[in-house]
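Entry 14. Two folds queued back to back today. First construct below, sequence then structure tokens.
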Amino acid sequence: SRDAKQTTTTADQPQIYNGTAVLTRNGKPAAVFDGSSDYMDMPDSMLPSNINNCSVFTVQTNESSPNGSTFNIGGYGTNDRWFQTIVVSNVEYFGYGSSYSAINIGAATTSQRLITAIAGSTQGNAQCFVNGTSQGSVALQSATPSSGSGELVRSAYLASATFQEVIVYHSDESTNRTGVESDINTYYSIYS
């Protein structure tokens, strides 16, 4: 009941096998989104009850066309944004609450990365981390994500991207962040 799905058409599904082999990044299986039509909807059960109490860990790669929005559990043009990540004019952002560009992650890159975003009262803010390093923080905002807003690659702003792992907690996991990141990094060997 927590699976991302693409039931509209098989042409819009990401590729995981090319007819010869399983697709990989850094030697591990990957779902590849083509940037022209691929996206997956997530069930509302994946959405947190509020964007001020959530943690998301993703292993992702921007493939080629840098503009687009990857993992989303919030609306676009509303105050319930959670874009992990969105790329605009070759700059990558963590979109949160009222801003699609809440935290500037830096120039878009095609490197495989572990991107973590956490918001909650334990941490005291919303913060984005890339490969374990904080990219900045913003004040907590309160909003309930819109029903139907969860997508792995946003259908209205398609991204050429690869995903290997997506973990969503409906809680502030800041006290467990380094342990979760360490386990993910041990498996994927993303950074030292």
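Second construct, same run, same settings:
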Amino acid sequence: LGVVFKWHDSSSYVTTVTEAYREEMLTSIPKSLFISISNLERDLRDIGIEPILPQIDVELESAGTVSVRIPLEQFMPTPPQIYTQYARIAWFDPIMRKGKYEDAAEPVFQSYILPLDTFRNQDPDFQPGKITQVTLHFSGGPGKVMIDEIGFNILN
């Protein structure tokens, strides 16, 4: 996907899973959903906005009627962006960065694997083989992330 997504207070990103995709790509019932996200809070800091660690919920809809929403941190916490100090003495850090180490942080993608059984345990009517929509709900803004991949794993 490679989508940069920015929100002020809260927002949602929706991906539709078509029947054609399910028939062609999902040769069996998927076991898990995987998502790759990078926190881009440094971009907000660069323009003077103090970001808040995003709260992300994942909502899956199956068969067009059953919807299950679970916080992403139930599977793994959303990590804060890591900032690096290059010099032992903080006062020297700006001198060391000049010209070659301008950014104290780089975006790093975090991969999440969400077992679909967890969603089925929330609602027995949820059908992993008939997922029609994946929605990522973002709150705790302002925030900015890059979504690299959303997909399904059919292997155990």
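Quick look at the second one. Residues 29 and 95 are 55 Å apart (CA to CA). The helical segments are 19-25, 41-46, 93-97, 116-122.
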